[in-house]
Specification:
The protein has about 280 residues and is an all-alpha fold. The protein is built from ten helices and no strands. It has helices at about 10-30, 35-40, 45-70, 70-75, 75-90, 90-100, 105-120, 130-180, 180-240, 250-260.
Length: about 280
């Protein structure tokens, strides 16, 4: 039967005393340095800074559209009520001045202001109000769609910028493989691959929300256009029913002379001598 060595407890005690310090030192040496997301973004190169600028611009455009494409901002029910009151009362000139005031600026006021101005300058008068409103309405709807075009452009450009950063990172990675060796090649290869993937991720992070926002704002514009069309059609009905064109009055003498038959012209006297 083997007996344990008397030195075994002493060796075990020394190992137990030194192992925590050695393990902690080894762990500290092998532990990689913590890298934050901001460090990845800043190390991704010039394209990453362009993508950051695009993200800030996209947030600003979304906030602007959310403010400008509100129903109460575009339609303004108080302006519609006052304009409708002027049209029902037949005050066409007052309605035109009301639409041209800067504090009453909205979609409906701009459309009716243009239509009423066109009526006042046209020899056909109130008959031009519908065509004028249709022309101004189409221009205003196009302007609302232009507000949304910026978000659509960013949704298309951001993935391309991300792809550009990816290509630049891959070019650097292949140059590293061909020029460096050893641990330096591994470090540079990891750096360029990280640059490529970060640029790709940034482009997608910008493009996906911009695509969703573009679709939602386009749907809101279509809903607002339908509501505004119904409102303007109602106002056009009031304007055409109250502002009748003036008809010339016929005097009693003119009417009486027109009702009497025309008398025959007298025969000329004979020129020869009568026998």
């Amino acid at each position: 039967m083997l007996t344990p060595s008397p030195l075994l407890p002493l060796v075990q005690a020394l190992l137990a005393q030194n192992s925590p310090a050695d393990a902690s030192a080894t762990g500290a040496a092998d532990a990689p340095e913590a890298v934050s997301l901001l460090d990845y973004i800043l190390d991704a190169g010039l394209v990453s800074y362009l993508l950051i600028a695009c993200s800030v611009l996209a947030v600003a455009l979304v906030i602007r559209n959310a403010i400008l494409l509100r129903r109460n901002h575009v339609l303004r029910p108080d302006i519609v009520r006052q304009l409708e009151a002027h049209l029902v009362a037949g005050n066409i000139r007052e309605a035109e001045r009301f639409c041209q005031q800067p504090e009453n600026d909205c979609f409906v006021a701009r459309v009716f202001g243009h239509a009423l101005t066109r009526c006042s300058r046209s020899p056909f008068g109130i008959m031009e109000i519908r065509s004028g409103a249709e022309e101004a309405g189409a221009t205003e709807v196009e302007q609302m769609h232009r507000l949304n075009d910026g978000i659509g452009i960013l949704a298309a450009v951001a993935p391309m910028l991300g792809l550009l950063g990816t290509v630049i990172g891959m070019i650097g990675a292949f140059q590293t493989i061909g020029s460096l060796t050893g641990s330096a090649r591994s470090n540079q290869l990891a750096l360029f691959m990280s640059m490529a993937l970060v640029n790709t991720a940034e482009g997608l992070v910008i493009a996906i929300p911009c695509t969703v926002a573009f679709a939602l704002f386009r749907r809101r514009i279509e809903t607002l256009t339908k509501t505004l069309g119904d409102t303007i059609e109602r106002l056009l009905g009031h304007a055409q029913s109250t502002a009748q064109p003036a008809t010339p009055s016929i005097g009693p003498s003119v009417a009486q002379s027109a009702s009497q038959p025309a008398r025959p012209a007298p025969r000329p006297a004979p020129t020869g001598a009568q026998r």
